[in-house]
Amino acid sequence: MTRASNTQGGPVTVSKEGLPEWLDPVVRAVETVQPLQLSRFLPPENGAGRQSAVLILFGEGEHGPELLLMERASSLRSHAGQPSFPGGALDPEDGDPKADGPLRAALREAEEETGLDRSGVQLFGVLPRLYIPVSGFVVTPVLGWWREPSPVGVVDPNETARVFTVPVADLTDPDNRATTVHPSGHRGPAFLVESALVWGFTAGIIDRLFHYAGWERPWDREKQVPLDWRS
Question: Could you tell me the residue range of the domain that residue 29 belongs to?
């Protein structure tokens, strides 16, 4: 169990106690997955890159287990219009980026971007740090269980276009899986869900996490969708 001071006065706790049984495969995957199993883009050895964190938040909704996602505003300089996990760069107030800083940053950013009540979130794991070359971010994915759901929505339209949840069943449905091909030639997994194309870093994490959790179902990797896809 790890503790850190919370920016609102309370502790941040990482604990696996009391999680629903359906999350057990995810917990095991988090405990055993290696960085190169998640991505070939790892943080530069020279320490370059802006430290950041994202919150991978699992909840249980009307249609079973679900993930919280948001769509970034089209006016942003980085990753404009892309669906993503809530998250962003660490602030000095978040503390040590190699210790507890990413935990606080993930919760703080999620609250700022979606209106999430962080007191209802139980953090249960942290994935290895990864790198996004196009933006220079070094990202720590922090996993949470939405123990006490709270209303969420767009807080600042200049940063967020919408906030939505996606059933895990939809993300694992082979009909909703596809491959995107970036103009650079890079191929990556994608999900067509909730009138959105989830691709890039976010889709890569979902794809690998579900694979190592044993949730992946066979899908047609030759099915391609353009990045400007619209339902």
Answer: 2-166
